Amino acid sequence: MLGICRGRRKFLAASLTLLFVPAITWIYLFAGSFEDGKPVSLSPIESQPHSPRYTATSQRERESLEVRMREVEEENRALRKQLSMVQNRGLSHRRGNHSKTYSMEEGTGDSENLRAGIVAGNSSECGQQPAVEKCEAIHVAIVCAGYNASRDVVTLVKSVLFHRRNPLHFHLIADAIAKQILATLFQTWMVPAVRIDFYDADELKSEVSWIPNKHYSGIYGLMKLVLTKTLPANLERVIVLDTDITFATDIAELWAVFHKFKGQQVLGLVENQSDWYLGNLWKNHRPWPALGRGYNTGVILLLLDKLRKMKWEQMWRLTAERELMSMLSTSLADQDIFNAVIKQNPFLVYQLPCFWNVQLSDHTRSEQCYRDVSDLKVIHWNSPKKLRVKNKHVEFFRNLYLTFLEYDGNLLRRELFGCPSEADVNSENLQKQLSELDEDDLCYEFRRERFTVHRTHLYFLHYEYEPAPDNTDVTLVAQLSMDRLQMLEAICKHWEGPISLALYLSDAEAQQFLRYAQGSEVLMSRHNVGYHIVYKEGQFYPVNLLRNVAMKHISTPYMFLSDIDFLPMYGLYEYLRKSVVQLDLANTKKALIVPAFETLRYRLSFPKSKAELLSMLDMGTLFTFRYHVWTKGHAPTNFAKWRTATTPYRVEWEADFEPYVVVRQDCPEYDRRFVGFGWNKVAHIMELDAQEYEFTVLPNAYMIHMPHAPSFDITKFRSNKQYRICLKTLKEEFQQDMSRRYGFAALKYLTAENNS
What is the C-alpha separation between 352 and 337, in angstroms, rounded? Predict the structure, then answer.
């Protein structure tokens, strides 16, 4: 609406100017052509030097009038052209969404501290700005390193995807951690018309490691300086963003600003919105040199092709070397060096309007930038305090950020209609598999879940693991949803070794988990726990997919396949490490069984030894797991023998056997067709038996199941007849697949099933 009003005002002003300026000019000229009440002829024939009316003064006046007439003619032509553009823009506004391209708002480019040359170069032009073509790819570069930055960049990407109408090409300069996390995330996100390229940040360290830097971003905060060298040589322009940015508009509007660059302008930047570079924040504050307030590098427009021609690499290096002789180190990483270069070469910068980088730093003056929240386009959380920064309007900004933080990323998988997209092999295979399913099949939803690609964020929290030198380490593997979150602290107290957890959460629940974990001293003190978020999609709990995700991302040679409802005995971690050596698990196909028990009491004095457990078993405080509802599940463990056993003993597979086992890292995955409740572990143990694993019960190990409310999936199993029918169908299909894969040896599973 504001844009339409501005267009009407410009149209009216141009119309009036076109009408009145020529009229006034000709009246002035006509009046000036009379001398003593008689007309003065401007004809060169009548104005001979020998004419008695000719004087030196009249000659100068005539020449002055001719020059003025030519200027008026030029102004008229410019005004007509301008008026035509305003009319065209008005038509474009009236067409609204029928237009295939859209024009962008103009930047102001003004600053009290700018040199005259920059002000002139950045002044707003009257006329239609070049539009961004509908299917033009927009290139965005982001430096991202570590676990926290990988989490932050997701919110930035969500805000960009939410508003975008163009294909996007992200260039991610990432360390090994961020690459692993983000490569998996984007691969499983499967957003159409989005391309991701990674560049090894660790290889770039040598380019900037010579620069001492005090900024909390560390060495990665300097890597924007080397983008001309890092990004492809054929890439001409790119938008560079910090990870703590949130977009409130279509990024194509910012991309369109490239068309406003003139002459040698190669950097698009917003003025710094604090007094940092003015040097008056505290006594003896000595910032790097900058032009006025300087510029903030959270949002940068880079004309890469021109920067390369200008020898940008040499330019910034020489400047940095010179300034470091007196400054000794940077305080604001790359921003200090960018500003020092601009101070010496002000013609390089095109000043972006302040709303393209509203900075929420500790000493910000950003509220002077906007009159209304509708003016805001990019929010920059450039304080180490992030969301806790003190600002007059921080609540509004925080709510905007939280909107994208908790927004369901699956909703951003929308097609850009009319734009050809690159062939995605994974997406094509998925569509082919889904097309082969019968939608009229009553078990269609069960079958479809097997092929559903769930968006996955690995290592949601910081993770550190040092491999054990003796190569005997064991990782506890489990999966959970939000209703089992309270088990995490107890498990961490019982198991000191590495843990790999897959959490099935929505975007909003993932943030609740983050706040819970960050508020827990127990969880924050443990860095060897890998939390992998698998985002919710579909109507079933993908239990075996979750187990596979947790299994796939362990760093140890062995793993203990557990469930989140179980507490391992104290000292089980060290006991298992000794057992894998004693039973030569490295060179044999064994599955070591940890006997499972349960209590019906929410408050339990956990047994500290096998003798104490047997006493509680005799008193009825503990029971063998599921003895009263599903005896077959653990009966082959032979609890009677376990009571007196002092050495490991072998047991045979039986139908419906589902013990908790310790296996090598290379054991087969769980079968994804089983979702929700029923047969998910049974099928896996059957697969181990088919691959000739030997089941060995550990005599001095145990785990106890803690009580909880029934899960939603077991409730569906009990109440929904069709659920049970589909589960039976999936069991039969699994057994048929086993027969095809393992031949005659798999016949015993069919026989055992029929006899059970």
Answer: 19
Decide which of 373, 407, 441 is a domain's last residue: 407
Residue 182 tokens read as 């983000």
pLDDT tens by residue, 722-742: 888 888 888 888 888 888 888
Q: 320 and 337 in contact (C-beta within 8 Å)?
A: yes
Q: Give residue 200's identity as a one-letter amino acid code.
A: D
State phi, psi for 522 to the nearest 5 degrees: -65, -50
Q: Region 344-368: what's the mean pLDDT?
A: 85
Contact 238, 171 (CB under 8 A): yes
The CA distance from 161 to 414, in Å, is 9
Provide the residue count of the chain. 756
pLDDT(56) > 90: no
Query: Are both 535 and 659 inside the same structural domain?
Result: yes
Q: How many CA atoms lie within 13 A of 348 on its CB side?
A: 27
Per-residue pLDDT tens digits for 82-106: 544 544 444 444 444 333 333 334 4
pLDDT at 497: 96
Query: Does 364 map to a domain?
Result: yes
- Overall domain count for the chain: 2
Residues 396-407 have pLDDT tens digits of 788 888 899 999
pLDDT at 95: 40
Average pLDDT, rounded, for the chain = 82
In this structure, are 678 and 597 located in the same domain?
A: yes
Sign of the Cα torsion 229, 232, 233, 238 reads negative
Tokens of 262: 């003139």
CA-wise closest residue to 673 among 451, 427, 436, 455: 451
Map residue 556 onto helix, strand or coil: coil
CA–CA dist 689, 591 (Å, integer): 9
- Asked whether 543 and 449 are in contact (CB, 8 A), the reply is no
pTM of the model: 0.80
| CATH classification at residue 716 | 3.90.550.10
Where residue 111 falls among pLDDT bands split at 50, 70, 90? very low
Strands 168-174 and 194-200: parallel
The answer to whether residues 277 and 403 belong to one domain is yes
For 212-236, write each residue's pLDDT tens digit.
Answer: 888 878 889 999 999 999 999 999 9
Q: Are residues 471 and 403 both part of a single domain? A: no
Nearest Cα neighbor of 137 from 377, 410, 419, 414 is 419
Q: Is the pLDDT of residue 362 over 80?
A: no
What per-residue confidence (pLDDT) applies to 83?
Answer: 46
- Tokens, residue 375: 């003016």
Measuring CA to CA, how many Å separate 483 from each of 480, 514, 536? 8, 15, 14
- Give the strand order in the sheet containing 566-568: 566-568, 703-705, 596-598, 623-624
Return the CA Rg of the chain: 36
Please report, for the chain, how many H helices and E strands are present, in that order.
Answer: 25, 25
Asked if residue 61 has pLDDT above 80, the reply is: no
CA distance 548 to 696: 23
**Cα 131 from chain centroid?**
27
DSSP string, 647-684: S-EEE---TT---EEEEETTSPPPPTT--SSSSHHHHH
Structural domain boundaries enclosing 499: 456-751
